[in-house]
Design goal:
By secondary structure, the protein is an alpha/beta fold. It contains seven helices and eleven strands. It starts with a strand and ends with a helix.
Length: 253
C-alpha cells in the first residue's frame, strides 16, 4: 500500500476547508495545508481536522503550489484546492491505485457546482485534471493565475473514474470578485512578458469566448447559469486585456 500526501493551499477558506479535508479521510496518510496568512478561521479548522498547517507568504498560485508539493513527506501526492472535494467514486478509485499504482500520474474529471447548479456543459465538464502524481516527477507550471500540474520526464498518465467536486461560486458576487482578482493577476503577468493586446483581444476574442461556451459547448443546456457563465467568461476576457492596455497606457510619458 502506497502512502499518499494530500496537499492544499488556502487563504480565507473557512467555509470550504473542512469539507475538503473530510473528503480525503481514509485515503490520505498525510494532509498538508499551506496557508497564506488567512485572517479567518481557516488554519484553526484545518488543524482541528487533522491537517499539518504551514504558513507561507503567497507569491503566486504556481509558486505556492510548488512549495506545497515540497512540504509533502510521501512520494505520492494528491493536490486539491480548498473549494474541492472527492466524490465517493473517486475515493474508491484512489484506494485501488494506492494498492497497485501502474502510472506516474492520474487524471480525473472535475464537476463544478455554480450558483446552486451542477454544470455539465459550458466547457466546464468533463474538466480533466492531472492531480495525483509522483512527487519527484511533478511540477506546477502555467501563467498565473492559471496553473497546471505536469509530469517531468514521463508521459505515463492514466485516467481514473470519479469526479473532483468543485464548489466554485456560491453567488454572482463571488464570480465577479474572482474575475476582478484573476484578470488583474493575468494582466500583470502579460505586461511583465511585454505582451501587447490588439483588436482581436479586445473586440473579437470576448465574442468568440461567449459563442464557444454558450453554443459550441452547449452552455444553453445549463439553463440560465450556462448563459451567465458564457457572458461572464466573455467579460473576463475583455477586462483582462482592458487592464493590460491600461498598464501600457500608464507606462507612456
Amino acid at each position: 500500500m502506497q502512502a499518499l500526501s494530500v496537499v492544499i493551499i488556502t487563504y480565507n477558506e473557512e467555509r470550504n476547508i473542512e469539507r475538503c479535508i473530510r473528503s480525503v479521510r481514509g485515503i490520505a496518510d498525510e494532509i498538508v495545508v499551506v496557508d497564506s496568512f488567512s485572517t479567518d478561521r481557516t488554519r484553526e479548522i484545518a488543524a482541528e481536522c487533522g491537517a499539518r498547517v504551514i504558513k507561507h507568504e503567497f507569491e503566486g498560485y504556481i509558486q505556492q503550489k510548488n512549495y506545497a508539493l515540497e512540504q509533502a513527506t510521501n512520494q505520492w501526492i494528491l493536490s486539491l484546492d480548498a473549494d474541492e472535494a472527492l466524490s465517493e467514486k473517486l475515493r474508491n478509485s484512489i484506494k485501488e491505485i494506492k494498492s497497485n499504482p501502474s502510472a506516474d500520474g492520474y487524471t480525473m474529471n472535475r464537476l463544478t457546482y455554480y450558483c446552486g447548479r451542477w454544470i455539465r456543459h459550458s466547457g466546464w465538464y468533463p474538466d480533466r485534471k492531472l492531480r495525483m502524481v509522483l512527487k519527484n516527477k511533478a511540477l506546477w507550471s502555467g501563467i498565473n493565475p492559471h496553473d497546471k500540474l505536469e509530469l517531468v520526464g514521463s508521459k505515463n498518465i492514466r485516467h481514473i473514474p470519479g469526479d473532483i467536486l468543485h464548489y466554485s461560486y456560491y453567488s454572482l458576487e463571488d464570480h465577479l470578485q474572482q474575475i476582478d482578482r484573476f484578470t488583474q493577476i493575468r494582466a500583470n503577468e502579460l505586461f511583465a512578458r511585454q505582451f501587447k493586446p490588439n483588436v482581436w483581444h479586445l473586440y473579437f476574442k470576448p465574442l468568440h469566448k461567449f459563442f464557444k461556451h454558450y453554443f459550441f459547448q452547449l452552455g444553453f443546456m445549463d439553463a440560465y447559469e450556462g448563459y451567465q457563465i458564457a457572458r461572464l467568461s466573455a467579460f473576463g476576457i475583455f477586462i483582462r486585456y482592458a487592464k493590460l492596455r491600461e498598464l501600457w497606457r500608464k507606462k507612456k510619458p
